[in-house]
């Protein structure tokens, strides 16, 4: 295990022990606020009940995200209502899915869709994931064999995406996406899954696994808070920019009173 001293310590603060973990898919669940605070800063409504599971709703009320650790197997449930040309969809992610990977999908829900056609396999190929020959289903596996992304097509033509990670003891998580789940969301998930960037966990929250590599780092509370706040600030800035651009668009419909007797008299 490597040990690293973090630069920029300030006076009067006590450093805390954290660990950078690779591969990220085996880092464990992490702090759900990594997901929920970003959504809240992006204008989502917190519908959670006191002491109950997390429940978030999109500004247009078409998507709901829930995290329930109190039931078995527990985990994340994301549900999208049918809208326009989009069918109803869902995604289910296990409780030990790292929040940084969950955020790959949930962060994408706060952004406009890219004009480019989504490609779920592209982020995996960029990180040298490989596809075993003669597999029953199209499957991409991480270089160390701990994580996978699989595409399964049923005899009736329905496509299903399945993903997950597992250590040498069989501990891990799985994620499943409905056939109707928008492909740009699945791609965002696969990009977060394949990212080589390590994720941070505090002392006592590091999984016991020979499959992971850890680097010990001493982190000041102010540094940790600043990193978390930077993510929230970015979400607020993006939301403000979208709302400003939307309000600047010209009106496409006339006001109801536009032809009601000409100009309205002031009182």
Written overview of the protein:
This is DUF317 domain-containing protein. Pfam families: SPDY (PF03771). Residues 244-267 are annotated as: Disordered. InterPro entries: DUF317_SPDY. It comes from Streptomyces maoxianensis. There is one protein chain. By secondary structure, the protein is α+β, with helices and mostly antiparallel strands. It has a domain at 2-7 and 14-111 and 175-224 and 231-243. It has 5 helices and 13 strands. The protein has helices spanning 33-41, 99-108, 122-126, 183-194, 221-247; strands spanning 2-5, 16-22, 45-46, 54-57, 63-68, 75-80, 89-94, 138-141, 147-153, 159-166, 172-177, 199-202, 213-219. The strands form 2 sheets. Strands 3-4-5-6-7-11-10-9-8 form a 9-stranded antiparallel β-sheet, covered by helices on one side. A 4-stranded mixed β-sheet has the order 1-13-2-12. The longest helix is centred in the C-terminal third of the chain and has 27 residues, at 221-247. It is globular, with a radius of gyration of 22 Å. The model is unreliable at 5-9 and 255-267 (pLDDT under 50).
């Amino acid at each position: 295990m490597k040990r690293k001293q973090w630069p920029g310590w300030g006076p009067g603060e006590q450093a805390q022990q954290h660990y950078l973990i690779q591969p990220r898919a085996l880092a464990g669940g992490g702090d759900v606020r990594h997901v929920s605070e970003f959504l809240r800063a992006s204008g989502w409504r917190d519908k959670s009940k006191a002491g109950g599971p997390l429940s978030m709703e999109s500004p247009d009320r078409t998507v709901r995200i829930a995290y329930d650790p109190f039931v078995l197997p527990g985990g994340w449930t994301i549900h999208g209502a049918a809208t326009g040309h989009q069918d109803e969809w869902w995604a289910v992610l296990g409780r030990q899915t790292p929040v940084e990977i969950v955020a790959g999908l949930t962060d994408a829900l706060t952004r406009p869709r890219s004009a480019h056609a989504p490609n779920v396999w592209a982020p995996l190929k960029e990180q040298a994931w490989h596809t075993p020959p003669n597999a029953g289903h199209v499957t991409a596996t991480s270089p160390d064999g701990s994580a996978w992304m699989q595409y399964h097509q049923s005899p009736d033509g329905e496509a299903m995406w399945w993903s997950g990670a597992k250590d040498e003891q069989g501990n891990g998580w799985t994620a499943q996406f409905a056939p109707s789940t928008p492909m740009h969301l699945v791609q965002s998930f696969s990009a977060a899954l394949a990212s080589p960037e390590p994720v941070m966990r505090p002392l006592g929250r590091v999984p016991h696994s020979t499959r992971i590599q850890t680097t010990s780092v001493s982190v000041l509370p102010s540094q940790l808070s600043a990193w978390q706040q930077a993510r929230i600030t970015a979400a607020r800035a993006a939301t403000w920019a979208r709302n400003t651009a939307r309000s600047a668009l010209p009106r496409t419909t006339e006001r109801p009173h536009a032809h009601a007797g000409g100009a309205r008299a002031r009182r």
